[in-house]
Amino acid sequence: MERARLPRLARPAGPDRAYLVTVVDDRARAVVLRSSSGAGRPPRRSICSLCVTTHTGGVALLVAPLAGPAGRQGNSVGAYVCSDLACSLYVRGLRETGTRIHESLTQEQRIDRLRDNLTGFLAKVAVGEAK
């Protein structure tokens, strides 16, 4: 029996692009993100606004156009996010950043917080549709 082939991921159009895909309310949601130009800045300790993981030089400002007419006019919303978009690995302890801030939250609570923060970011992107 032949093994099923997995679909290939599309490569971003440029090194400053990323795609964020998740499921919210049983529907797939996708956002194209653009990295702000932070070249030449020395790395400093930052916290991801989605998974609340600390990094030295591993967090970038990623912006997404608002949905609908507002996005077509150039309006966007941004968040400081893990540069490698590995938030789900960090909250599950499958990837480390070196220094970890001790939290009293359980792993399940950290996962729920990540979902809530991601849903909140996607809601900000969708605000453009309502205008």
Number of beta strands: 6
Taking pLDDT < 50 over at least 5 consecutive residues as the criterion, the unreliable ranges are 1-11
Give the mean pLDDT: 82
Specify the structural class.
alpha+beta
Helix-strand string: EEEEEHEHH
Shape: globular
Strands side by side in the biggest sheet: 1-2-5-6
Radius of gyration: 16 Å
Number of domains: 1
Descriptive overview:
This protein is of the alpha+beta class. It has helices at 69-72, 87-91, 107-130, and strands spanning 17-24, 27-35, 45-47, 54-56, 59-65, 76-82. The strands form two sheets. A four-stranded antiparallel β-sheet has the order 1-2-5-6. The N and C termini lie far apart (52 Å).
Q: How is the topology of this model organized?
A:
Layout: E1 17-24, E2 27-35, E3 45-47, E4 54-56, E5 59-65, H1 69-72, E6 76-82, H2 87-91, H3 107-130
Antiparallel strand pairs: 1-2, 2-5, 3-4, 5-6
Notable traits:
alpha+beta, two-stranded antiparallel ribbon, 131 residues, single chain, disordered N terminus, 3 helices, four-stranded antiparallel sheet
TL;DR?
It is built from three helices and six strands; from the N terminus they run βββββαβαα. With 131 residues, it is α+β, with helices and mostly antiparallel strands.
